[in-house]
């Protein structure tokens, strides 16, 4: 994916980074192919590096210092490093090991870090290729649900960024994120296809449902099939943790199908794996706010990514219009015994 946030570096800088992280003894030779950009992501630039001893590692570099990012994306690399440490320390969820992190800005104008390479296939690619079949898709969705539940067991000291500061009220924190997001859009003149005040009125109408959330939990938020690596029929690792925060687990990507199944797929297998039954009226109202927030991000971020076509913007704006016109869904999946 092309984006102005991708901080590509010349070969000489990449070699200097490898030397700093692993020492001159692991510096690759001059042959081509030792550094390969992985182009699936939208935000950071990511390289797969082959070290001199044949090991494959991953290098991730934060956006250039001069490129404006959205408010919630500030400090994203520090968030990811914190998330990886929390997950490794408090769960059995498979994630890459961090080998080296450099925030000095001596070799380039941004933070970067090296981590282990997770061998396997990207689950989103397998789904697109159509080789899994419905039973295979459901099995992986169930596995993602169970894995996501384990992540959500990590307690938070309050609601907010993993790196702080946190606050005691989920309602206050989520509404602040929504205000910042809308301000990001207004500041850059993003046309939502409807009035910003109309969005604010919709949020205000359902904001009281946020008061039901009283315990802060680790939220991955970006755990969709594109960030899951599978191998030998099982989940081998999850990647891209820069959007994690402490919040309401119901905001997780796997639950988005409750509101928009035609767009994000049926949420039932994920919910079954998670151990969640039919959502309550309050949960359905909260889900509507979380889906609204997600679609707004997808519309507004196109301006910050510098897309050269309007294809993604047009698609996301259409989804926003549909969501705003659709009443809260009365979704009743099969009852699942709570663990």
Spell out the key features of this protein.
single chain; 339 residues; alpha+beta; Phosphorylase Kinase, domain 1; Aminoglycoside 3'-phosphotransferase, Chain: A, domain 2; 2 domains; 5-stranded antiparallel β-sheet; 3-stranded antiparallel β-sheet; 10 helices; 13% strand; globular
Could you explain how this protein is built, in words?
The chain has helices at 11-22, 76-90, 123-129, 133-152, 170-187, 196-206, 261-264, 268-274, 281-305, 311-325; strands at residues 35-37, 45-50, 56-61, 98-102, 112-116, 121-122, 160-161, 217-219, 228-231, 234-238, 245-247. The chain has 339 residues and is an alpha+beta fold. The chain has 2 domains: 11-116, Phosphorylase Kinase, domain 1 (2-Layer Sandwich); 121-325, Aminoglycoside 3'-phosphotransferase, Chain: A, domain 2, CATH 3.90.1200. The strands form 3 sheets. Strands 1-2-3-5-4 form a 5-stranded antiparallel β-sheet, with helices on both faces. The chain has a 3-stranded antiparallel β-sheet with strand order 6-9-10. The chain has a 3-stranded antiparallel β-sheet with strand order 7-11-8. Strand 1 (35-37) and strand 2 form a beta hairpin. The chain is globular, with a radius of gyration of 20 Å. The two termini are 40 Å apart. It holds the Pfam family APH. Residues 35-283 form the Aminoglycoside phosphotransferase domain. This is Aminoglycoside phosphotransferase family protein. It comes from Kineosporia corallincola.
């Amino acid at each position: 994916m092309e984006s102005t946030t991708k901080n590509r570096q010349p070969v000489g800088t990449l070699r200097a980074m490898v030397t700093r992280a692993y020492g001159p003894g692991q510096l690759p030779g001059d042959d081509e192919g030792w550094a390969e950009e992985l182009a699936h992501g939208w935000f950071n630039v990511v390289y797969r590096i082959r070290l001199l001893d044949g090991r494959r590692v991953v290098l991730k570099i934060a956006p250039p210092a001069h490129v404006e990012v959205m408010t919630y994306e500030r400090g994203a690399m520090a968030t990811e490093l914190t998330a990886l440490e929390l997950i490794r320390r408090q769960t059995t969820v498979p994630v890459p090991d961090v080998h080296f992190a450099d925030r000095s800005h001596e070799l380039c104008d941004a933070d970067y870090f090296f981590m282990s390479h997770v061998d396997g296939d990207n689950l989103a690619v397998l789904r697109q290729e159509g080789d899994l079949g419905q039973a295979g898709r459901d099995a992986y969705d169930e596995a993602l649900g169970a894995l996501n539940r384990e992540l959500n067991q990590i307690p938070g000291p309050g609601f907010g960024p993993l790196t702080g500061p946190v606050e005691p009220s989920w309602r206050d924190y989520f509404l602040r994120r929504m205000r910042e997001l809308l301000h990001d859009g207004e500041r850059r003149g993003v046309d939502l296809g409807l009035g910003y005040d109309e969005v604010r009125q919709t949020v205000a109408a359902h904001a009281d449902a946020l008061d039901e959330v009283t315990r802060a939990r680790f939220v991955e938020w970006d755990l969709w099939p594109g960030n899951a690596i599978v191998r030998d029929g099982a989940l081998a690792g999850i990647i891209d943790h820069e959007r994690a925060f402490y919040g309401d687990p119901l905001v997780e990507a796997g639950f988005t199908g409750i509101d928009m199944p035609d767009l994000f797929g049926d949420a039932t297998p994920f919910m079954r794996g998670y151990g969640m039954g039919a959502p309550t009226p309050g949960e359905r109202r909260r889900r509507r706010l979380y889906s609204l927030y997600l679609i707004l991000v997808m519309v507004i971020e196109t301006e910050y990514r510098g897309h050269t076509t309007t294809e993604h913007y047009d698609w996301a704006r259409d989804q926003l219009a549909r969501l705003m016109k659709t009443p809260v869904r009365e979704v009743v999946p099969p009852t699942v015994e709570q663990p």
